[in-house]
Amino acid sequence: MADRSADRPPARRPGGRNARVRAQILAATTELVARDGIAGFRYEEVAELAGVHKTSVYRNWPDREELVVEALLCYADDLASVEDTGDLHRDLADFLMGIAGGLETPFGRTLEQAIQPARQSPAVRQALARILDQRVAALQRRVDTAVDRGELPPVDSFFLGEMLSGPVRLIVNRGMRPFTRTDAERIVGVVLAGIRATAPHV
Amino acid sequence: MADRSADRPPARRPGGRNARVRAQILAATTELVARDGIAGFRYEEVAELAGVHKTSVYRNWPDREELVVEALLCYADDLASVEDTGDLHRDLADFLMGIAGGLETPFGRTLEQAIQPARQSPAVRQALARILDQRVAALQRRVDTAVDRGELPPVDSFFLGEMLSGPVRLIVNRGMRPFTRTDAERIVGVVLAGIRATAPHV
């Protein structure tokens, strides 16, 4: 749907003006959810922060929950990447540093609180499940390459993700010490060695 | 301090009536903190639930935060044990099942939320640190025995605890699937194998 209420010149990139307005709204929502929580942010403030008319927010997302869910998914897109430098250990340590960095932002903290089961609506819960799927898929692609190269036995990426990110979340959320590159390297080292040592065919 | 306001017959076990009253108050506090959160529970309700006079609560814990902290520490005492059946893998898997069970209770969930750094008062933060120390110490004792028996290279129990309980917390808190014995066994298997494989002298 075209948004005639936006007061800026047409964008030249694919998607056009409405896509740009939507992106601004989602970014503003992300910021406000981080500040006020999923239940606390207000449409008026989203519009103000996004620099658009309030009607643009209501027209694109008549349902408040859908707006939160899309904002969460947008945020997840930015995070769900695992590089391939050819060095699996390094790439996974980078991945863990990225997770830790994400958790340390205000939005990351809000997301962590949203993860508490009792606080989730079904829609938010579903969005979190999709975010998780994206991350697991990104990890799976990197791991598949490593398996092809003979660097790792075949492994369940869902389990690998839990083994890698569980300790990261624990250290960051506990907040008793900073999460460092040494932590990331150590976690990756133990988990990869453990997976190699316990693989059925090794 | 003797508690003359309690209306029950003197207890025969060590510690006497006041010890029993204190234990009842701490148990009631634990239950109410689980229901209403650290900031939300009320002294009147603690007294009612504990079956004691309100003055008993105020006299023993004039400071609200000290009451919470002692209740947290009491709860931790119950949890901080790692058995020694002679089978390290099994004992650690039991330990993880215990952590998962604790997290699944209402009180465990409240504790998890209290762990979010932004929500902690210094006293609660200190109590959580002591709870953690107790758990790490319990794990350390079990691991030391395993090291003595040559079952494991020397290992930093703090790090081992993070590697083991991080994935447990992640799986339980995410709430997307139940945490099972198979999960516990798998986590212990990978972590122990990884620690053996990455030890300097192995």
Structure notes:
The structure is a homodimer of 202-residue chains. With 202 residues, chain A is an all-alpha fold. Chain A folds into two domains: 1-62, Arc Repressor Mutant, subunit A (Orthogonal Bundle); 73-198, Tetracycline Repressor, domain 2 (Orthogonal Bundle), CATH 1.10.357.10. Helix content of chain A is 70%, strand content 0%. Chain A contains nine helices and no strands. The first copy, chain A, has helices at residues 16-36, 43-50, 54-60, 64-79, 88-104, 106-114, 122-148, 157-174, 181-198. In chain A, helix 5 crosses helix 6 (106-114). Chain A is elongated, with a radius of gyration of 20 Å. At the A-B interface, helix 6, helix 7, helix 8 and helix 9 of A face helix 6, helix 7, helix 8 and helix 9 of B.
The biggest sheet of chain A, with number of strands, parallel, antiparallel or mixed sense and barrel status, is: none
The biggest chain-chain interface is: A-B, 36 and 36 residues
> Total helix count of chain A?
9
Overall pLDDT score of chain A: 83
Predict the CATH topology of the largest domain in chain A: Tetracycline Repressor, domain 2
CATH class of the largest domain in chain A: Mainly Alpha
Structural class of chain A: mainly alpha
Q: What is the tally of beta strands of chain A?
A: 0
N- and C-termini, Cα separation of chain A: 56 Å
Proportion of beta-strand residues of chain A: under 5%
| Low-pLDDT runs of chain A | 1-12
